[in-house]
Design brief:
Strand content: under 5%
Order of helices and strands: HHHHHHHHHH
Shape: globular
Distance between the termini: 43 Å
Number of helices: 10
Number of strands: 0
Length: 271
């Protein structure tokens, strides 16, 4: 894992979330000073933070033209907040794992002929996980609630299978660059999609938490469903591209390795 790439992903996602959230908060309708709403609490917290930073002079020289480090401290806190926010959103983006399991299962069935040809070469633990996940998860998108619970229990099998394919594909040489690009785009798309859901919740709370009516509740629910479905489609599309490239690379690597083994065996037998 390249730390620079992960920091870039966290920075992009964190900056996106914080910029949009600041826009939402800045354009929110004003609250009365004595209000106990969330907006009033957030504005009071921001005022207290800036007041405390102002109280901390940070001056190395008492002269009037001495340097004040208040802005530098605020910039440093903001810089750290961007990456911490990106990290937390990356952790929150596991909400898409069930949709990713569905995509992964459908592609396993699609490439089952190529994978099945080399299945006997899998390590025993991977082979058991592969068979269990492929058999019990199925390829249907919509299933009953009880079947969904059974699918969620297959998460360890999915995680180990996905990790095995990624690790094996790591020996792909120059093709690994394209796979790495797909991985980074997928993780960034996950973060942006999770940010969209969280930002909608922030917008809903700051606008309508105290004055939402029946019509507003219905509209908010429909918008929430649209955002969630749209986010899942974005994540599913990018994850599908990643898995398709991953499984094609896996199959081609296995075929090339088997050909190399056969050529080496033929050379040894002829000698």
């Amino acid at each position: 894992m390249k730390l620079s790439a992960r920091f870039t992903e966290y920075g992009l996602v964190g900056a996106f979330f914080l910029i949009i959230m600041l826009i939402i908060l800045a354009t929110a309708p004003p609250s009365p000073p004595d209000s106990h709403s969330m907006m009033a609490s957030l504005r009071l917290a921001w005022t207290n933070l800036w007041t405390n930073l102002s109280a901390f002079q940070g001056k190395s020289d008492p002269k009037p033209d001495a340097v004040d480090f208040k802005e530098a401290i605020a910039a440093t806190l903001g810089f750290v907040a961007v990456f911490v926010t990106g990290l937390l959103i990356d952790l929150f983006s596991v909400i898409f794992v069930y949709a990713e399991m569905i995509v992964f299962s459908k592609l396993l069935h699609l490439y089952s002929e190529d994978i099945g040809a080399v299945q006997n070469l899998f390590p025993d633990t991977v082979k058991r996980d592969y068979e269990r996940f492929k058999t019990k998860f199925g390829s249907s998108v919509f299933v009953s609630a009880s079947q969904s619970v059974k699918r969620i229990r297959l998460l360890p099998c999915y995680s180990r299978n996905f990790a095995f394919f990624v690790t094996y594909a790591g020996s792909g040489g120059m093709q690994l660059d394209a796979l790495g690009d797909h991985l980074r785009v997928w993780r960034t798309a996950r973060g942006i999609a999770a940010s969209a859901i969280l930002l909608f919740l922030v917008w809903l709370v700051t606008r309508y938490a105290e004055s939402v009516g029946p019509v507003g509740g219905i509209v908010a629910t429909l918008v929430a469903v649209a955002i969630i479905v749209g986010s899942m489609c974005i994540v599913g599309f990018n994850f599908s591209r990643l898995c398709a490239s991953l499984l094609r690379l896996f199959a081609s690597l296995h075929k090339s390795n088997n050909l190399a083994r056969a050529q080496g065996l033929a050379t040894r037998m002829s000698s």
